[in-house]
């Protein structure tokens, strides 16, 4: 009875219901998209997109736009560029790193000229899901649906190109187009995830749960579902822990993500036996 009362009290506050709704949307999208990001070995590209988005968000604040739209615009442009160049540049991690450093430099420049944006910049870096309102929830829902629809449209060639790239190319699958479209999808997912845990901790939802799921699940579809479930569970449990401990939400989610992954590492050999 006491536990039920405590849980009910938590949802008496509108900011908590908003936070659970927003975190749920972003976590499911991040878990599904992140599964393919990990499977394709492009986690560094996802990490770079989140940091590049920081420059876009600060730039948007400088000209009076909502930071989210600057985040979406910059990550989309960067994702498409990475996709176009991915088949041309043999050492593409170096190119991504250079673009990442340049974008962070621009972000610092924008902050220098717009010092009143400093508080919002902190929220962008580490997340502030407790400040989400209903308008942002609606925006995240629309972006989430667009992201999953885009992923669904390229699902079959993406799976083929991810598991057997040489055979896919021989069969006429346009690898560069698939890569570009996928990174555009990743860019949208990163933009949503950054609203919850911040650009510095995007990996907590986009890499941790998918990596754990791939250690535990035996198939593609079961892995996808497990990844989304783990991301959702970590986001909601992290919010609950933060509510009762007054710890930062992003910290709680990050700890849960790391613990889940290390538990999956330990359990994977047992599952194989």
Which labels suit this protein?
273 residues; mainly alpha; 14 helices
What can you see in these coordinates?
It is a single chain. Helix content is 83%, strand content 0%. The protein has 273 residues and is mainly alpha-helical. Helix 2 (14-39) crosses helix 12 and helix 3 packs antiparallel against helix 4 (67-85). The longest helix is centred in the N-terminal third of the chain and has 26 residues, at 14-39. The model has no long low-confidence stretch (mean pLDDT 85).
Could you give a quick summary of the protein structure above?
The protein has 273 residues and is mainly α. It has helices spanning 2-10, 14-39, 43-62, 67-85, 92-113, 118-126, 134-153, 155-163, 165-170, 175-197, 203-206, 208-216, 220-245, 249-272. The protein starts with a helix and ends with a helix.
């Amino acid at each position: 009875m006491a536990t039920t009362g405590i849980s009910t009290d938590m949802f008496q506050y509108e900011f908590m219901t908003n936070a659970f709704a927003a975190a749920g949307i972003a976590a499911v999208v991040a878990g599904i998209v992140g599964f393919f990001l990990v499977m394709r070995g492009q986690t560094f590209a996802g990490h770079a997109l989140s940091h590049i988005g920081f420059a876009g968000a600060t730039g948007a604040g400088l000209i009076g736009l909502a930071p989210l739209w600057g985040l979406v615009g910059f990550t989309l442009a960067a994702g498409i560029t990475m996709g176009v160049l991915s088949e041309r540049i043999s050492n593409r991690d170096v190119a991504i790193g250079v673009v990442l450093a340049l974008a962070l430099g621009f972000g610092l420049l924008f902050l220098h000229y717009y010092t009143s944006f400093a508080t919002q910049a902190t929220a962008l870096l580490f997340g502030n899901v407790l400040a989400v309102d209903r308008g942002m929830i609606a925006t995240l829902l629309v972006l989430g649906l667009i992201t999953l629809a885009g992923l669904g449209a390229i699902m079959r060639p993406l799976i083929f190109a991810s598991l057997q790239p040489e055979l896919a190319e021989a069969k006429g699958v346009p690898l560069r187009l698939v890569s570009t479209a996928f990174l555009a999808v990743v860019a949208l997912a990163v933009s949503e995830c950054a609203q919850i845990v911040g650009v510095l901790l995007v990996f907590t939802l986009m890499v941790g749960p998918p990596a754990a799921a791939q250690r535990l699940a035996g198939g593609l579809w079961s892995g996808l579902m497990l990844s989304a479930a783990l991301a959702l569970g970590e986001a909601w449990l992290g919010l609950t822990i933060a509510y009762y401990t007054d710890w930062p939400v992003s910290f709680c989610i990050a700890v849960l993500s790391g613990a889940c992954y290390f538990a999956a590492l330990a359990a994977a050999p047992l599952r194989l036996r």
